[in-house]
């Protein structure tokens, strides 16, 4: 079929190609998603490296280059042969800066075939009020329709009712396995070092694979190509600094490349001396971000990016823990000719955690990590002004270390280790985007994915062939006996899975202002986060599919209507989706997952379904900008052995979720921001009875997640004091108050027996319900300046 | 040491440590995390169910074998569970059948049952025209090699005081599961605590055939001079161990759902309703072997 399409694209008149890069005039940073179109309506947008290619008929054309927040370039050209033209866009300081949601490709979300995609610029994220004054990527995307999280201290987020482990989080192409700092209050993304964030909730292109629910594509800043620049921020709990500048400047002052280096560190521990009880504690996290790029020549460019971050807590003679990600990406891009763009990335990614028992005499350290190497070549062919074709290969090699124990401080603990797991994940994909008619644009493709669980490993063999057998009479899963193990040598395949994942999107223009879109995608996920908590923790372990755990897969269909109102002053979209998930993992009742190797005896798999409608209204222009989003949705699982085998609300289920974001620019030095969030409480399981056993009060439960926490709502506000317009000072003050009206939102409500009478611990026979809320009103102040 | 398929012994109490730790971290970052009693704001649905507690105890120093039948109450009710006095209860070992007679407060007793090691005892309860049945197998328990007490200083988790200690040797080549009961002045004492799932019950996976020395049967129970301290080591079945593991995990839950505390689920009984399986019974009917000793703290 593709060959037919190709011949369709390439037939016809004499065409020539204009191609090149688009960059910011002031900083030299490449701009992605810039629209370039000619007076004849042929158009395209720059790719993630700022590269565009446009096929035009020979002759005279007027080219328009436009991007939000920049002055549009209008340039007349006469072309006779293939031409390279680079554009430099100038920031438009006259127009008040615009909030950009869902502006993934230039200005035209009505024309663009992409749906279920939201983009947030770092500059927008930095304007939103934030808890403890620290802008946060993961908290910000939760203001978008279809995105939620189970609580405020969750390092994960849920997209369209999916589990938190169903999101592929990429930082410059490298997978981030755990995006949390401080048990989830902050994410690992330093908003200073970030250029923008793109979230795919559906219609996911075939170049992405490996997770069911979403792709969060985070891109770091490239750095200023013209001059050295620095900025810093000092906040209540952490400070950050960023420097950037050109590499190898030429006589015109343009660098052959540029670098960006950013760091931040929390310093809560600096204050612990104030309290004797906390005096010797260690408590901090830090991040280092690096990006550099270098133009080898006109056609060849090199990019290097890296991230290193770590959390470290320690209570002396008691307990310590540490976790962090290390990722690195080396990329090479080559604009082979006017129509062909090649890119290739080598990626390393590692997540590890450790837990130290520091009680004297039995000191030990527990370590676990996941490492992957990744090689991703990709070729883009700008086949004609109406068609772009992309194809590529992903090779990933994983190594999982589920856990090992070693003695600390010479204690007598014997070193022990769980077996490593190894796996290879390969993807081959092709994707074509083309205008079938003036009104109908189609993007389609497929991904062929292959996953191989590899030796060297001893695989446990169970008496009945499977680790668990469901006993319908007692309603419990029985763990089957291990009757032996089979060794698979290094390089041999333990278990292999292959899958074809079709992807399809279409856009039909109803008018210049309105369009209809539809999409379908199938996704496969081969690695799973093993957790029995409602939200991921730093101590969760990723585990690969294999002989006992099957890959998860999902089919999603979405339709949407997109509209521009009053010349793009507003835009509006509504999308409906239905997702069917297979082999979703949940833990069996009473599962015990911490520190065990045979996780297959604790996990069960079943089906899931999620559906909903998302509304988004943006105000793009004027003094007041912002958006209103509303989502109505359901997300349910059905797994044999849970809830009598009937559908139950999963942890991400929320019927209503509403976000209102407003940013106000005034004529004074003050700017203001406000965010209001309202959502249905998340599902929980409340007891349906009490009884006594062994001297303790025990709770009985009926259906999983049959109850709801109270409604969640919260208002955060911020005020920014900018420097005087005519002064040289760059410093600005940002004041914010999170949870302005001090709502005690429930993170959990739990039920227990009162276990203390007059300071003496004992079973009392009395019961209580207790609500845990993470924070009330939190004021904060941050000072930012440039140097 | 075979540690492959099980949790590591060294990680005993880790759940509890982590929970306490997270609470401290929240305090440290100065977030005004707060716990509030909302008992009066919550209304709960409830389902009434039959509950069994008790079973057969060999060598407990008491020739009476008894079980108790009660009914559940809504969770936030502060009164004892109502008892059931109108059930018919029998126990059989496959050859002999004993009738248990209601005495008082829901207790059903027999004095003629002499428990034997290795026997499987099956209970049958008929109540409200529905029949419930379940069984457990009695496993032999090894004796205490030594039984003594020690004074211990205050730690992060325990107060200072006298604590019971014992040494015991696990039989080689047999799968053993233990449960420890502590009595203070002859009163059974237990505290709902996250550590119970790791201290009050234990499997011999890690110490098969070994002698264990200086074991504290319940770290939450301390004694003062003059107390009579008694402890029982029970030999229990694997099924009862699993039941108790879930029971102690849930009753020790401190409410921080993001560290290793599974969202709650009913703890399935070993007794089932064969007339109407959906009308579940709760609790456990056990058969255990008892090793008991006591000492006066001086």
Automatic annotation (TrEMBL), chain B:
PROSITE patterns to which the protein is assigned, alphabetical: PROKAR_LIPOPROTEIN
Domain of life per record: Bacteria
Protein name per the record: DUF4249 domain-containing protein
Organism name: Flavobacterium cyanobacteriorum
